[in-house]
Write a structure and sequence with these properties.
The structure holds two protein chains of two kinds.
Chain A (H helix, E strand, L loop, with lengths): L1 E10 L2 E11 L4 E5 L6 H8 L7 E6 L2 E2 L6 H7 L2 E5 L10 H10 L5 H14 L15 H13 L5 E5 L7 H16 L3 E5 L3 H6 L4 E6 L2 E5 L12
Parallel strand pairs in A: 3-8, 3-9, 6-7, 7-8
Antiparallel strand pairs in A: 1-2, 1-4, 4-5, 9-10
Chain B lengths: L1 H13 L5 H35 L2 E8 L5 H12 L4 E7 L1 H12 L17 E7 L7 H10 L4 E5 L4 H40 L2 H9 L4 H34 L17 H23 L1
Antiparallel strand pairs in B: 1-3, 1-4, 2-3
The chains are: A alpha/beta, B alpha+beta.
Chain lengths: ~230, ~290
């Protein structure tokens, strides 16, 4: 699903990510951990081609990121669902419209869009808020709309950047359950977090710890050190 | 495909309502720019029209003595029309002159009691075409007019022809560069305003990119929105200009000027609206890139 070899990215003379190498198989759940500025968000942005890689090799969902351009970027992104800490939803549009957007850009038929969006909103328990403008929803509801938008397209890979960062612990746990549910259906998930409590909620997940743009721990190769525990 | 494109374009226009304030202010700015550009064009085109109309022409105002017999005066008017070079003769009997004067001063004024006792003289406005190879003809005609029976006064401006020629030369040299400069200034103002208003929609662009929308899918609604702003602003601006023109159309249409201010030729108005629409489209394209 993801194959990275010495992937690097620099802002001028600063290396935000250096020689990152790992493979991620289909259906894996990966936590990217590390302090702020460790390179977690940069890595996620590289994975969905929001940033161009500076060096190395990367393959995501069968797309070679080094050769990715033009319409192939949109084709890659159709395979990926992305969830952000700040939701990135359109506040004036309703929950339904926000989720439907991901299907509309694929040119899907209206009746099919209606059916799929309703189903996802039901799973995420916000069906009753379908026609409420998102600016009137709570933070947790807005985040569920963002998750609904990312999963409605049945993605191969979900990238989540601190998805529970703005939510209280109770709501965070409920949203983690949603991610676990989609993971159970076989979706590959990469979640960046610096909230260590999240890790304990998915005991089977792999952990990659970043510091200063480098991998300092990969739980598939070694045991997590103290401080990085489940 | 055409259906999707139309739907996206309509959505782009409809979505302007989601950020009403930036787009309203942008529309006001475009309206004002269109109005000012149109006003300048109105001035230039009217000036150009007048200069062309008067090019090679001299107008004489001929006043008969108040006591002159109207039948004799009307015979003179008939004769005038057959003079070589005379292009038009506008005539006013004393009553007609009074009516004209009343209408220009106070249309409500009731001066019916003066009918047949008008204190104004019979008047003729004679337009003479002056051929380039006969520059002295105005003087000869002037002398002939003065020599007509019962003529009290003949007015004409000897500098009129020279001035017309100089204005024509100047307008040909400066008119198009001025219009070009005006277009550039209006384009910059409108372009930047629409570009700034479209920035409020960039979050939408980010999200569309994120969910895998193709570039044309993202751009089309934005371009339609920008073009709609340009078009709406220019139509409103031209509407304001029409109201202004109606208000001042006959302000200078009084003796001795007889200048009526006309609206822009339709091709200019269309050109102005099309240019501002195009500027709106291009600036949206720059904003979304």
């Amino acid at each position: 699903m993801v194959r990275l070899t010495r992937l690097s990215y620099n802002f001028g003379s600063v290396w935000a990510l250096k020689d990152v190498t790992f493979n991620l198989g289909k259906g894996e759940f990966l936590f990217l951990t590390g302090p702020s500025g460790a390179g977690k968000t940069t890595l996620l942005k590289l994975l969905y081609a929001a940033l161009p890689m500076s060096r190395g090799a990367a393959e995501v969902c069968g797309f070679d990121l080094a050769r990715l351009h033009g319409r192939h970027v949109s084709l890659l992104r159709r395979q990926i669902g992305v969830v952000f800490q700040d939701f990135k939803i359109l506040p004036k549009k309703t929950a339904f419209d926000n989720v439907a957007l991901a299907l509309e850009v694929r040119g899907m038929a209206k009746s099919l869009i209606e059916r799929r969006v309703r189903a996802v909103l039901r799973v995420l328990k916000i069906e009753d808020k379908s026609y409420v403008p998102c600016e009137r929803l709570s933070g947790g509801e807005q985040q569920r709309v963002a998750i609904a938008r990312s999963v409605v397209v049945n993605p191969s890979l979900i990238l989540a950047d601190e998805p529970t960062g703005n939510l209280d612990p109770g709501l965070s746990r409920r949203l983690m359950d949603v991610f676990k549910q989609f993971h159970a259906y076989g979706t590959t998930i990469v979640m960046a977090t610096h909230n260590m409590d999240m890790l304990a909620m998915v005991p089977s997940a792999r952990i990659i710890h970043l510091e200063g743009g480098r991998i300092t721990l990969d739980s598939s190769e070694q045991q997590p050190p103290e401080g990085v525990h489940r | 495909m055409i259906g999707i494109a139309l739907r996206l374009a309509l959505r782009g226009v409809r979505d302007l309502a989601e950020h009403p304030w930036p787009h309203t202010f942008a529309c006001i700015a475009v309206t004002l720019a269109a109005f000012l550009a149109g006003l300048f064009l109105l001035f230039l085109t009217n000036l150009d029209r007048e200069l062309h109309a008067r090019h090679g022409q001299v107008q004489f105002q001929v006043y008969w003595q108040p006591a002159a017999e109207l039948a004799g005066v009307q015979n003179a008017w008939q004769e005038l029309r057959s003079w070589p070079g005379v292009e038009s003769v506008r005539t006013y009997t004393p009553d007609e002159a009074l009516h004209e004067l009343t209408a220009s001063l106070d249309p409500e004024a009731e001066l019916g009691w003066l009918k047949g006792k008008s204190p104004l003289p019979a008047t003729a406005l004679v337009s003479l075409a002056v051929p380039d190879n006969d520059p002295d003809r105005p003087k000869i005609v002037y002398e002939r007019l003065k020599a007509l029976p019962d003529v009290a006064e003949v007015h004409y401006n000897p500098a009129q022809m020279d001035m017309a020629r100089s204005w024509l030369a100047a307008s040909q040299r400066f008119l198009w560069p001025l219009i070009g400069l005006l277009g550039l200034v209006a384009g910059l103002i409108v372009g930047n305003t629409i570009k700034l208003s479209q920035v409020s929609r960039l979050d939408e662009v980010d999200i569309l990119r994120l969910v895998g929308a193709r570039q044309w899918y993202i751009e089309l609604p934005m371009l339609a929105g920008g073009a709609a702003q340009g078009l709406a602003g220019s139509i409103l601006g031209l509407g304001l200009l029409k109201l202004f023109q109606l208000g001042v159309a006959n302000l200078l249409n009084v003796p001795p000027l007889f200048l009526s201010i006309e609206f822009l030729p339709w091709i200019y108005a269309l050109g102005l609206a099309a240019s501002l629409t195009l500027v709106g489209l291009l600036s949206s394209w720059v904003a979304v890139r």
